Amino acid sequence: MQLFKYSFPIAVVLTLTGPSSASAGWLVSAGISTKGDRYAQIHIQQGDVTLFLVCDQRNLETQDLYFKLFTASMAGLPAQDNDEAVLTLQFQLPGGGTHGEQIPAWYFDGGSGDQAWMGRVQADAAMLDAFGAAGEVSILNPEGTAILRLPASGTAAGAKAIREQCGVGRR
Q1: What is the mean pLDDT of the chain?
Q2: DSSP readout, 49-99?
Q3: What domains can be seen in the chain, in order of their start residue?
């Protein structure tokens, strides 16, 4: 069964930095594409894993974000080309609560360095509020086990950029 296949908007961003790690937090890039669309791209890297959440003005209608988790097959989430799985993007909230959004995703394996889980995640006001207030961001496998835990430094700026640039999750 195939959940979906579609193209993602592409934004080329050149960032010159030293070695990156999750301790640097979420990085935000926003602007206007060569096609004239406003976009926002937020990402974080931890070791060999990079997570991107991306939107542009077209997401105003769908109220979702493009999810791209660049990684080779990992413990708790083995993957081969065209595998499908429902992942969860979960936010640990102040006071101990959580907010989670499911992501129907498929895996692309273009060879070493070109492997990613891709999908779309709903992004309403509650989701962006939780993302912006999170103390930690986790990716859960289909069994509900956390396979990746990321710091949340920079998520408030990311949520703001998504709302302002793409109109997603506005109240």
Answers
A1: 88
A2: EEEEEEEETTHHHHTEEEEEEE-SSBTTB---TT-EEEEEEEEEPTTS-EE
A3: 22-166 (2.60.40)
